[in-house]
Amino acid sequence: MRCYLLSDNTDTLMGMRLAGVTGEVVHTRTELLPALSRAMHAEDIAVVMLTQKLADLCEAEVLAYKEQIPIPLLVVIPDRHGSADMTAAISRYLAETVGIHI
């Protein structure tokens, strides 16, 4: 089982490759949706990481995958510019995945 990254910039992908994570760079919703579908339905992928900018392009699809497909785990990560408010991001993640509202 492996990790896979869908990123909107090559810097993030190159950094993750140093840790052994493969992936691809996509920029538009049209490119993202088929790539996300392929990654979520691949039998050898355990974790799919998606940069925040890409997750914002397809919020409904990300939420649907998180609710309907237990494996692979879909994780939204901050891109190289970081997340503006990590506390809000963690609270939102808990609310979406577990149903706990903080």
Short précis:
The protein is of the alpha/beta class. The chain has helices at residues 10-17, 29-41, 52-57, 59-68, 86-97; strands spanning 2-7, 22-25, 45-51, 73-77.
Give your account of this protein's structure:
This protein has 102 residues and is α/β, with parallel strands linked by helices. It has one domain: 3-Layer(aba) Sandwich (Rossmann fold). It has five helices and four strands. The protein has a four-stranded parallel sheet, sandwiched between helices. The longest helix is centred in the middle third of the chain and has 13 residues. The radius of gyration is 13 Å and the shape is globular. 23% of the residues are buried.
Task: Outline the fold blueprint.
Layout: E1 2-7, H1 10-17, E2 22-25, H2 29-41, E3 45-51, H3 52-57, H4 59-68, E4 73-77, H5 86-97
Parallel strand pairs: 1-2, 1-3, 3-4
